[in-house]
Amino acid sequence: MAHGVPGGRGPRGNPVSRPGRPVRVGPRAAAALVLVTLIGIAAFGWPLLADRQSGLAHSQDAPWLFAALLPLLVAVVVATIADQGMDAKAVAMLGVLAAVGAALRPLGAGTAGLEPMFFLMVLSGRVLGPGFGFVLGSVTMFASALLTGGVGPWMPFQMLALGWFSLGAGLLPGPERIRGRAELAMLAAYGFLGSFAYGTVMNLQGWVLLQGMGQGISFHPGDPVAQNLARFLAYCLATSLGWDLGRAALTVVLTLSLGATLLGALRRATRRAAFDAPVSFGPQGTSTPDPLPEGDTAGHVR
296 CB contacts (<8 Å, ≥6 apart)? Predict the structure, then answer.
């Protein structure tokens, strides 16, 4: 019979659950994340370096970005499986959380930037790690776009931006030490700042397409980067500050009010699934762990 070993034993011999993350970023997964991030930065920022004669329509480069993004997302998942021996349970959890996030998006209907799925991305990234968080954010945005009819040249950029948002939550410090109110306060602060960061990044995608808005906020192809960035800042303050504030405020309220319950549920699910638990075979009714040899991968069935 196979026995998962979710943790060690306490001072009285009782089992102790580890709050470890089921999807840890190994070297291959990290390389895939770095590659997709570099491609994303180039996709968002290349118009700032283009000359006046360059075509600036993101509608032309969006299909290429989408074509590059999908295999890279698959590469992150495959690399994580190769690095950590992840099984189908993690993929199933990814599908469930992406479906829940996609269902949450229409509830806000885009009114005043109210998008309740952002708080789910914060909590999921915190519990399940940066690699899982990036894939979850991107897949959730893709699924929600299909659900709401929001498919367009902006979609691959939204997938990247929400993936970065969820990845950042997984990189927050102290996952084994910070708990309770301190953790909720940290996650709420991250959700607040990250909501503005998401809006700012997405503004950059659309701003370069808008012309004739005024000398102080319009994008001028071929101008120095510093001058265009100053206009971009003025554009964000003039057009999207209120929208981003609505998203940030709702994320904070939901995180503080529902965060403790959802964090507990996610952590219980990951402990029961025991994604990173070594598995051994022994007589039925026994639970003695079979120690892994040095260099063996957690989750490998022997």
Answer: 278, 302
Structural element, H or E, at residue 281 = strand 279-281
Contacts of 69 (CB under 8 A, 6+ apart): 36, 39, 40, 138, 156, 159, 160
Question: Which structure tokens are listed for 68?
Answer: 């590059």
User: Alpha helices, DSSP H only, in 109-240?
Assistant: 117-128, 130-148, 155-170, 180-207, 225-239
Locate 98 and state its tokens.
């992406």
Whole-number Cα distances in Å, 264 to 77, 180, 259: 25, 10, 8
Residue 266, number of CB atoms within 10 A of its CB? 18
Say how far apart CA 255 and CA 92 lie, in whole Å: 24
* 295 backbone φψ class: left, alpha, beta (φ>0; ψ -120 to 50): left
pLDDT 10s digit of each residue in the chain, 302 long? 444 444 444 444 444 444 444 456 778 878 888 888 888 888 888 778 776 665 555 556 667 777 777 787 777 777 766 665 556 777 788 889 999 999 988 876 556 567 889 999 999 999 988 888 888 998 999 898 888 767 877 888 898 999 999 999 999 988 778 889 999 999 999 999 999 999 999 998 888 777 667 778 888 887 888 988 999 999 999 888 888 998 999 999 999 999 999 999 998 888 776 655 554 444 554 444 444 444 444 444 44
Question: What's the rounded Cα separation, in Å, for the pair 275 and 282?
Answer: 20
Instruction: State how far the Cα of 5 lies from the Cα of 32, in Å rounded to an integer.
Output: 29
Residues 6+ apart with CB under 8 A from 160: 36, 40, 43, 44, 65, 69, 138
- The total number of residues shown for the chain amounts to 302
Under a CB-based contact definition with an 8 Å cutoff, are residues 295 and 157 in contact? no
